[in-house]
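ok new one. same drill as before - structure tokens go in, u give me an amino acid for every spot. 229 of them this time. try not to just spam alanines like last time pls lmao
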């Protein structure tokens, strides 16, 4: 006897993914709208307290995004694990380790710029993924989701690198995350950040190459047509 549609594993998987993408889309849309309204209301001054205004929601969205690694691992989301791991790791380290731990960095303009880039990418990506799960595709949205990252992702990495650069004096002054270990060993966290700064650009090259190959494959087979029901 055939199972009802709502009991079918594929239906439940798609329902879960749709809800997940919808939550992420709403979160990032709220952040972007909030930043836009604040900028037109308060001007350049709104950029200084961006983190205080929307930092909590941003941290929540980025924390939830770690579920995507589980999605890929168990096979409910068709992506490659390592490139996605690199992208999520970049954001988690910059947001939680570099920005959240240093109040002085939270007031820098680079935080506002970085949040704008992240949200532009995620609003398009989650919209595309959310509609794809329910079998709807638009040529312009497919093209945008596979193209927008090309100029913005490198800018994101540059902004992340600049955030690290601006945070170094504060990590040096306050000794945050630096620690002395037994046997006269120690961890000097600014050195760790400088090493990560180099790794950031290596990871960008790998991720960019992967995303470009993925874009080429998707746009090659995608028939640019109207909405598919």
């Amino acid at each position: 006897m055939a199972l009802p549609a709502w009991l079918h594993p594929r239906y439940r998987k798609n329902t879960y993914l749709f809800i997940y993408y919808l939550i992420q889309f709403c979160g990032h849309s709220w952040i972007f709208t909030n930043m836009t309204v604040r900028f037109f209301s308060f001007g350049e001054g709104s950029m200084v307290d961006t983190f205080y205004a929307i930092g909590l929601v941003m941290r929540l969205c980025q924390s939830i995004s770690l579920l995507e690694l589980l999605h890929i691992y168990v096979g409910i989301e068709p992506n490659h694990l390592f490139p996605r791991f690199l992208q999520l790791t970049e954001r988690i380290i910059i947001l939680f380790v570099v920005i959240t731990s240093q109040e002085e960095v939270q007031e820098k303009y680079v935080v506002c710029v970085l949040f704008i880039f992240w949200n532009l990418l995620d609003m398009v990506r989650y919209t595309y993924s959310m509609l794809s799960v329910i079998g709807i595709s638009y040529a312009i949205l497919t093209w945008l989701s596979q193209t927008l990252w090309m100029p913005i992702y490198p800018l994101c990495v540059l902004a992340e690198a600049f955030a690290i650069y601006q945070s170094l004096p504060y990590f040096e002054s306050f000794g945050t995350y630096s620690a002395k270990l037994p046997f006269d060993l120690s961890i000097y966290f600014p050195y760790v950040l400088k090493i990560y700064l180099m790794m950031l650009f290596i990871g960008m090259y790998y991720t960019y190459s992967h995303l470009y190959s993925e874009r080429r494959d998707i746009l090659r087979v995608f028939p640019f047509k109207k909405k598919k029901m």
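The first strand starts at residue 179 and ends at 181. and btw The beta strands are 179-181, 185-187.
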